[in-house]
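Narrative of activities, Objective 1.

The group set out to show that a structural description can be obtained from nothing but a protein's sequence at a throughput compatible with the screening campaign. Below is one input-output pair from the validation batch, recorded exactly as produced.
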Amino acid sequence: MAIYLIDYENTKNLTGINNLSSNDSVIIFYSQNANTLSFETHKEIISSKARIEYKSVDVGGQNALDFQLSSYLGYIVKQNENAKCKINIVSKDKGYNFVAEFWKNENSTDIKIINDLTGELQNIYTDDTISNVLKQSKIQLSDDEIKEIVAMVKKYKTTQTINGNLNKLFKDSTKAGSILKLVKPFIKK
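Output recorded for this entry:
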């Protein structure tokens, strides 16, 4: 069983919907900014065995659909607490990675962010994303230090290795630990 929450405003992509099973659920979030389908997409939807639900959301501010989808995700997580189901968000919006990480830390729910219903995983983080998180933190870091931290996150695969390198770079375990907490969601698993 899998549940797919689709940010149709962002992706306008339902590729693969006709390959889902009757055990799967698809919830399509759309707004006045994205409320049309091609005949080809309509044919794919009606040939799908999955349960399809539509959520028309109000817009009026930046990321309005994202907030509503994220709120509904919390409801879905709670409803399926004891069920063995996979939860997926279909979007190219990298902001959903933070929501997925929150739920993973909160109750070990593994939420995947995918580009389409064929299951292609999103290329989650860019160097700019990591840099922005570091720049917005309260930790004083130079541009060169930020570049070095980004390089570490890209190069090393474990928190232990990155932590060791942060301690070597800063010679301050408290600062290294604080930085590690910031970059931990970006470490490849």
